[in-house]
């Protein structure tokens, strides 16, 4: 398996409550100077653990942009992910301190739009050919209430990692369905009690949700601009029930796994303590650098029927234009340059970021077999969390992990836990 540079996980979850509560920025976007074609274009991008490759690509894009625009200087600042809520809140409330263009996590967007922070750039994207090569479900991660507030820049999706040596030793076939995944985990645990059959914890929301989505269930349903909880549907409960079988003594004992999040789930696999895990394309580097690299294979997480793929969460980052910018046209042009084919390809080569343009995805999969399971997962269709500012508090309060953990611990039946979680979701959503 080929080594690539370390990347930061795509999904940037949770928006601070203080951000969603702030008032819309009071900005006059009309009149002289509202759309200047000269001056300094300010750009915020997220800092990375290994940032130099990202900077080299961005620097080249900046040089190209400046060469094509007289009297324009692009100034890029790299900001910490952990302090993004405070930084964006300040920018929304004081446009003079705000960037013109910014990278943001897609689960943060609904709160940012409620705060009036990002511009709807639907018109600027309407005649951009590359935009048509972003699938509808991926494009939706930058959309709120019919508006488009950016361009999906890169994605993070998850697939099934498994130990080929363990499967061969025990005569286990590659799982064709989610039920097969659970049964394979049981076989491993029975024959190798020192290993976890499938390392996937009770606090691993994006490891658990594909089980719900594959059975036809969901988190919440949107109708007429309002959300209603859906985790108490029969379909969702079927997925919860199957995942609860993972969190059992037969596969991944609750005392070990009930509180595990995604990072811990994958770390068990990397450490050789598990026969399977649900990991992302962003975990490939760590697996490649581990002792289990030569005995690892990756396939799309299967669905409920042979040949199907369980829908994965489409985590990732977008590029958007701040609503207070006085360089709107330049800002949209820079977004299209950095999110276009040339620089998506360059960012993939430099950082391993999974592209959002389908043709770049196909090129990447053809050139690198490691990425193929993730592009196949994308092609099969992805899902997203409810596009509402309330998701930040729902995620922070752990409504879904608590539901799963209650079932795993024996504190509640699937029906009781799902019904209680639905009530909590409806209260948080508040008729949005």
UniProtKB/TrEMBL annotation:
<keyword id="KW-0732">Signal</keyword>
<dbReference type="InterPro" id="IPR006059">
    <property type="entry name" value="SBP"/>
</dbReference>
<dbReference type="Pfam" id="PF01547">
    <property type="entry name" value="SBP_bac_1"/>
</dbReference>
<feature type="signal peptide">
    <location>
        <begin position="1"/>
        <end position="25"/>
    </location>
</feature>
<keyword id="KW-0813">Transport</keyword>
<protein>
    <submittedName>
        <fullName>Extracellular solute-binding protein</fullName>
    </submittedName>
</protein>
<comment type="similarity">
    <text>Belongs to the bacterial solute-binding protein 1 family.</text>
</comment>
């Amino acid at each position: 398996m080929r080594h690539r540079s370390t990347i930061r996980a795509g999904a940037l979850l949770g928006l601070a409550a203080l951000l969603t509560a702030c008032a819309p920025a009071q900005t006059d976007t009309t009149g002289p100077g509202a759309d200047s074609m000269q001056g300094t274009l300010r750009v915020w991008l997220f800092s990375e653990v290994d940032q130099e490759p990202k900077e080299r690509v961005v620097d080249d894009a900046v040089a190209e942009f400046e060469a094509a625009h007289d009297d324009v200087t692009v100034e890029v600042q790299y900001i910490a992910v952990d302090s993004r809520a405070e930084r964006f809140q300040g920018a929304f409330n004081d446009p003079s301190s705000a960037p013109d263009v910014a990278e943001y996590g897609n689960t943060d967007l609904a709160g940012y739009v409620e705060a009036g922070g990002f511009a709807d750039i639907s018109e600027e994207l309407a005649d951009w050919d590359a935009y048509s090569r972003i699938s509808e479900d991926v494009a939706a991660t930058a959309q709120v209430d019919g508006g488009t507030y950016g361009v999906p820049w890169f994605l993070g999706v998850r697939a099934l990692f498994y130990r080929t040596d363990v499967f061969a030793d025990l005569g286990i076939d590659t799982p064709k369905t989610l039920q097969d995944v659970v049964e394979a985990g049981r076989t491993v645990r029975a024959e190798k009690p020192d290993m976890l059959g499938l390392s996937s914890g009770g606090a691993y929301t994006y490891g658990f949700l594909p089980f719900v989505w594959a059975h036809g269930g969901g988190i919440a349903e949107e109708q007429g601009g309002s959300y209603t909880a859906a985790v108490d549907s029969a379909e969702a409960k079927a997925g919860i029930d199957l995942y609860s079988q993972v969190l059992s003594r037969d596969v991944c004992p609750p005392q070990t796994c009930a509180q595990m999040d995604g990072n811990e789930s994958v770390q068990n696999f990397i450490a050789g303590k598990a026969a399977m895990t649900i990991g992302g394309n962003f975990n490939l580097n760590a697996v490649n650098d581990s002792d289990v690299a030569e005995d690892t294979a990756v396939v799309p997480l299967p669905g409920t029927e042979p040949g199907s793929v369980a829908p994965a969460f489409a985590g990732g980052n977008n590029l958007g234009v701040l609503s207070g910018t006085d360089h709107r046209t330049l800002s949209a042009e820079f977004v299209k340059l950095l999110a276009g084919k040339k620089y998506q390809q360059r960012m993939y080569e430099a950082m391993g970021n999974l592209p959002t343009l389908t043709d770049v995805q196909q090129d990447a999969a053809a050139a690198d077999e490691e990425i193929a399971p993730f592009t196949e997962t994308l092609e099969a269709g992805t899902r997203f969390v409810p596009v509402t500012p309330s998701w930040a508090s729902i995620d922070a309060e752990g409504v879904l992990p608590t539901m799963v953990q209650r079932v795993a611990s024996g504190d509640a039946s699937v029906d009781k836990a799902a019904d209680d979680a639905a009530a909590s979701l409806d209260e948080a959503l508040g008729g949005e």
